[in-house]
Amino acid sequence: MGSEVSKQIQRRKAVSMEKQMLFDLNENCGETFPGCDYRPTDRKNWMASLGPKDLHINNIVWPGTHNSATDRIGIPCISRPFAQCQTLSVYQQLALGTRVLDIRINENNRVCHGILLTYNIDVVINDVKKFLFKTTSEVIILEIRTEYGHRDPPEFEDYLEEKLSMYLIHQDDYVFGKTIAELLPKRIICVWKPRNSPQPKPGSPFCSAEYLKDNWIDTDLPSTKFDSNLKYLSDQAPVSSRYFFYRVENTVTAQPDNPVVCVRPVTGRIHGYARLFINRCFAEGCANRLQVFSTDFIGEDFVDACVGLTHARVHGEC
């Protein structure tokens, strides 16, 4: 019993120390970077505002959400706080400016986070189609994967193709060098990551797991996650010579050996440091590698930071 109490005390000290480290880093380094002052006038149509003919796929800093379809997961006030990573619906996220969705499903086409379930995947698809209907030049990356511990839903590729065929951008390495205008009217890069079934093949309407990569670090320590994000990003090739999307997630994850296990207070340890992260990317010489940047509980400022850096790239400011 005593050793467990001592362990918890040390864990809390580590969390407190790392929170202070990030706070001090932010105080000393600030949040400035090329494009940091830019604010899109219409977040729902920010790609259109930057110019589809000027906006190359590999030059975009794509604002994304982690566990995107968890706004209604679990039971309110009981299990929801342990799994909810977003409070906005998928449509609301897209209208806010999100352009990368992370959707986890089970064998029954239900969206899930671990063992907790929420609505059917149809809700996500309908929100995506609603958004595309209300815009003209916005392209999204729709990542759908079978959640760990679950089986692939049967005939899922057939289902997706039936629902989204008119929008799907087929698996093709040349996509990365194209502009938004060259892809239109196709508007969805759909990355399908089954757990047991074969991966989508070249030329398929769907991209395989190799087209969206990351280095997930499972920790609730904010400075540890921040530093590892920088390290792994630095190991990547520049976006101009890369034939896959690379994601950095501005999140930390609750751990079972820590007394704080609800998502919001844990991920809040790193949530406010997205602009600091971009600032440090420039300081470390890896800003030309930043591409997909995702977060829990996405808000306007996170979107603006990504769009601002994209704006600076389009105008040759970095």
From TrEMBL:
SMART domains: PLCXc. One of its GO terms (biological process) is lipid metabolic process. Residues 54-193 form the Phosphatidylinositol-specific phospholipase C X domain. InterPro entries: PI-PLC_domain, PLC-like_Pdiesterase_TIM-brl, PLipase_C_PInositol-sp_X_dom. It comes from the Eukaryota. Gene3D superfamilies: Phosphatidylinositol (PI) phosphodiesterase. GO terms for molecular function: phosphoric diester hydrolase activity. Pfam families: PI-PLC-X (PF00388). PANTHER family: PTHR13593, SI:DKEY-266F7.9 (PTHR13593:SF113). This is Phosphatidylinositol-specific phospholipase C X domain-containing protein. It comes from Gossypium hirsutum. The gene is LOC107945043.
